[in-house]
Design brief:
The complex is a heterodimer of chains A (about 325) and B (about 260). Chain A is built from 11 helices and 14 strands. With about 325 residues, chain A is α/β, with parallel strands linked by helices. In chain A, strands 6-7-8-3-9-10 form a 6-stranded mixed beta sheet, with helices on both faces. Chain A has a 4-stranded antiparallel beta sheet with strand order 2-1-4-5. A 4-stranded antiparallel beta sheet of chain A has the order 12-13-11-14, with helices on both faces. In chain A, strand 7, helix 6 and strand 8 form a beta-alpha-beta unit. The longest helix of chain A is centred in the middle third of the chain and has 16 residues. The radius of gyration of chain A is 23 Å and the shape is globular. Helix content of chain B is about 80%, strand content about 0%. In chain B, helix 3 crosses helix 5 and helix 3 packs antiparallel against helix 10. The chains are: A alpha/beta (about 325), B mainly alpha (about 260). At the A-B interface, strand 1, helix 2 and helix 3 of A face helix 1, helix 4 and helix 11 of B.
Chain lengths: ~325, ~260
Amino acid sequence: MGCLTRLGRVNVVEAIDLRRTYKTTTGTIRRRSLEVEAVRGVSFEIAEGELFGLLGPNGAGKTTTIKMLITLLIPTSGSARVLGHDVVQDARWVRKHIGYVFGGDRGLYERLSALDNLRYFAELYAVEPRGQRARIDELLELVGLKGREKERVEGYSRGMRQRLHIARGLLHDPPVVFLDEPTIGVDPVGARELRATIASLTAAGKTVLLTTHYMFEADALCDRIAVIANGEIVAQGTPAQLKAGVADGSVVEVELFGVEEDRVERVRTLDGVRTATLEDRDQKQLLIVQTAPGLELTHAILSQLNGASIGRVSSREPTLEDAYVQLVTSA
Amino acid sequence: MTTARLLWVGWLMQMKMLARSSFNTLLGIVYPLFFATVAFFMFRAGDDPKPLLYASLGAAVMGIWGATSTAAGGSLAQQRWHGTLELLVAAPAHFALILLPTTIAMATIGIYSMASTLLWGWLVFGIDVQIGDPLAFLIAVPATVISIGALGFLLAIAFVRFRQAWALGNMLEYPVWLVSGFLVPLTLFPGWVLPISWALAPTWGIDAIRGAALGGSPWEDIAMALALGAGYVAIGVLLVQRTLRAARTKGTLALS
């Protein structure tokens, strides 16, 4: 088992200065070798029964970190332990005691039924043959696929596949579950059902590491969150603690039409502006500006956008998403 | 018991996947017929039916080898593409026990090719398949399938380590059937080729099948095919953990 936390709970997952470098090549005739640092010294602990979120944009190093923890990648340096066992030295032991679920369409045998997919993985995880059918039935019930289990997976919707992924990851009843963007691409209703299933895992006493780039998901589910950007953890704490980091400022939102990035750059140079991001929203754009406390910068912002076609302008309190944007853009 | 069960379920699931792909099945049936046709024209000389049956059986085993060499690479490339390769490696079962039934299933599905080739020879070229020793034939065929599957297993380990290694399977398809004597007798090759031929289980497998069908003593060949198959498995088991560790270090289990 891992060491005790200050609150007396056992650390189930420990990542200590994890680093991972990939070698890649460029060019066709004159080949050059490049080193890409995907993860640059990541450290965190997850206590028993905790739902820990690893939050970051695409390419931040979330999946690489999770793959080192589940023994699929060997760290370039640093170490990690799961339930006190080293993920490199005791890889087989670790594999027996963890479940791994990833998001998206991949990771299933399309030409097999859900039942056959589960039967096969039950064998790979040495689930007792006599108890296999009962365990599979129980999991099909849990993820809402009972009655559809004999259909081939190739006919399944994204949400159904994702639920099957979760059932597969839980076959051997692991105490630790790694979920890598499990709701990606799932429709809102399906995603809500999946979140309810994820929440039920910690209620059943499991320790969960969840990676996501959906802020509301991390906010709703996670006990603690680590924000990762460019391969480094830039902040760690409860959702409330992370929100508190930007709570002293305010946010100005401006609807725009066809504005260029150089005007946004001018907004960023204003005194008191912490971040300014431009998002495309259907036919329009939304400029989100985080400002320092006690400043009224709406007029200054609008004057920098002079000449642009401007729609609705509003001001609001910061959210976890704003905290995330500030952390990630300043990394 | 657990190991036997794992091998059986792995084989069964792979067979289900392969048998459910109608395109692959069609390819497995039709593709070898072209080689068989060329072989029949080459060997159709005189009134002696034996050379034609000799060619027919050679073309049939070519189908089994072809199904294994190309499909093993293709299947692992697909597993990498679909993300299932990582899940197999992340499972606690010994990876050799996961991979071996997969390649044996591929060799088994090659029996489609064998059946279609023999049927084609009978229907179009009037080659009567008269088996001299049916019992030996019934043992020689699965022994050949298993030993070819074991050779595919050895190849598949390279496919796990290197992302582009599936091309190796395609590249080895023709040289192996050539030096295994599927169509051309080994006596026609220069002496230095023979040790390579003897190290290949398909050489002994086809000799066993021909021995059982055309008359002769196939038992020694069956034993050699199985012994070589067991040797490939033993080498594979020794290599697989080292290969997996290299793949985990280099990060080649996934596409990204």
